Amino acid sequence: MPKYVLVYIDFPFWRVEVPRLSFFIGGVDFEYRVWGFEEFDEKKDTLPFGQVPVLYIDDKVVAQSGGIIRFVAKKTGLYSSDDFKAAKIDELIDFATDITEAVFPSFLEQDETKKLKMRKEITEIKLPKWLSSLESLLKTNGSTNYFVGDSLTVADLVIWSLMGWFTSGQLDGIPMNCIEPYTLLSKAIKTVDEHPKVVEWKKKQPKK
After folding, report:
1. Which of 51, 69, 160, 208 lies most in the core, judged by the most C-beta atoms within 10 Å?
2. Interior CA angle at 162 toward 151 and 133, to 5°?
3. Residue 15 binned pLDDT confidence (cut-offs 50, 70, 90)
4. pTM reported for the whole predicted model
5. Contact predicate 63/125, CB 8 Å
């Protein structure tokens, strides 16, 4: 079996937490390396795009979150061999990326007044559209509590992890209960949260 080494900085986020959890659920051994910012600066020029996460597979490397997540999902039974279902999984990975890129400027903003103004726009305008879209996808899928098909896929892990960021309290100005009005989405998040392997994984994680 190949040796898998997943590398990221010390910042727990869905981009790396999803492949970590996927490896765990699939029972596939891997090593997780956390680089400090100084180490990252020293090594970034050796990376395909000068950024993390990256996944080393023996002497090969895969960069970009989406590429890593898809690769790991295929190795751990969390993807689909059905072309349409695979495309729907890809759709949600890309949607999560779009959401993250829309929110992240506010995360980096140092001026507190400007930051809260940006978060207010997200909360009142953008977030309801995003969450409504997720609710609609779940309804279209037959209200199975999963986004694709009737069993757990990496798409569910991606949205679960992303929603965990929104409800964590880390994003000042965005209510921690923002997903509560969305019944199907709330049920889908609860379904992942209560998955036996996810419960086991959470118990193994260090307390922050």
Report:
1. 69
2. 70
3. very high
4. 0.95
5. no
C-alpha to C-alpha distance for 201 and 116, rounded to whole angstroms: 33
Task: Count CA within 13 A, CB hemisphere, residue 27.
Answer: 1
Phi and psi at residue 192, in whole multiples of 5°?
-70, -45
- Sheet containing strand 60-63, edge to edge, reads 31-35, 4-9, 54-57, 60-63
Picking from 66, 67, 49, the residue whose alpha carbon sits closest to that of residue 57 is 67
- Let me know: does 78 contact 157? Beta carbons within 8 Å: yes
For residues 56 and 22, the answer to whether their CB atoms sit within 8 Å is no
Asked if pLDDT for residue 208 goes beyond 80, the answer is: no
- Please, which residues have CB within 8 angstroms of residue 134's CB and are 6 or more apart in sequence? 147, 159, 182, 185
Q: Which residues pair with 60 in a beta bridge?
A: 57
**How many whole angstroms separate alpha carbon 52 and alpha carbon 172?**
25
Find how far residue 16's CA is from the centre of its chain: 7
Is the Cβ–Cβ distance between 83 and 121 less than 8 Å?
A: no
Cβ neighbours around 50 below 10 Å, total: 11
β-strand 4-9 against 54-57: which pairing, if any?
antiparallel
Q: What's residue 29's pLDDT?
A: 97
Q: Residue 56 pairs with which residues in a beta bridge?
A: 5, 61
